[in-house]
Amino acid sequence: MIIVMKPGSKENEISDITRVLESLGLSAHISKGTQVTIIGVIGDKRVLRDVPLEMMPGVDKLVPIVESYKLASRTFKPEPSIIDVGGVKIGGRELVMMAGPCAVESREQIIEAALAVKKSGAQVLRGGAFKPRTSPYAFQGLEEEGLKLLKEAKDASGLVTVSEVTSERAVEIANDYVDMFQIGARNVQNFQLLREVGRLKKPVLLKRGASTTVDEWLNAAEYIISEGNYSVVLCERGIRTFETATRNTLDLGSIPVIKNSSHLPIIVDPSHAAGKSQYVPALAKAAIAAGADGLIVEVHPNPRCALSDASQQLAPDAFDALCKDISKIAEIVGREFKV
Asked: Which CATH fold topology does 2-63 show?
């Protein structure tokens, strides 16, 4: 449930309601918009049956939240959220570009990639250290050594970093090295892992699963937010369909659906959707035109030598060309992207 305050309601009126809720074992999330203030009520609402909240000073109306994802819903927070990742704001007017190799392979590789993507306009460096792969014989990542190299690349480039965590142990290790956790498609419904990153309060990039509906995806975000971490960014990366021409089918429709249903920002991963580098630019540009708040693109100094997902990674010159195109599209759709 949310409590909608009247326009111009006073601070003491908001405080009085908060005290009443807390006295009943509930908690309140206050969202101040440009017109009105909304108080989200978190907890077992049955204790409010005999409490005339609608009669308290400053209250306009009570609105039930019908979605199963309460805290992630736009009903709970009508204003779009802007997530701060080490000073990089995701969800505002400026588009955010995350870029880097699928996996951290060596010091030279990750630093070269970091410097290249920054030069083209990226604000966030991606690089995998824990790599869940379909085959147990495929390259699984350098783990903590990879995270150390990612941190070196951050120091060399000034970019903030995001890297996937695959277990509670990985979260514990990565917490000292990265600015943002990524929950990959395979772990979107690993609820224990979602709760773990929720408790740590570090920003989380939550990818959609290959067979995950939008409602299931938002409920996964709810697991993180329910632990107190509201810094969640959603990432569309394609879903599994009958089509085999691309690795996954990019669901551009999820972008407006998310914008309508949730206050959380959403970015798109065209690399995993395409599976082939020649398709990545077209999907990336379509995502921005559809309203995405940014992109996460795989870029490798020498894609043919990549230890994982070589076919879908862009070379630095191709990434630079893409960023120039994105800056033009951004202007058309009323966004900003600096190259």
From this structure: Alpha-Beta Plaits (3.30.70)
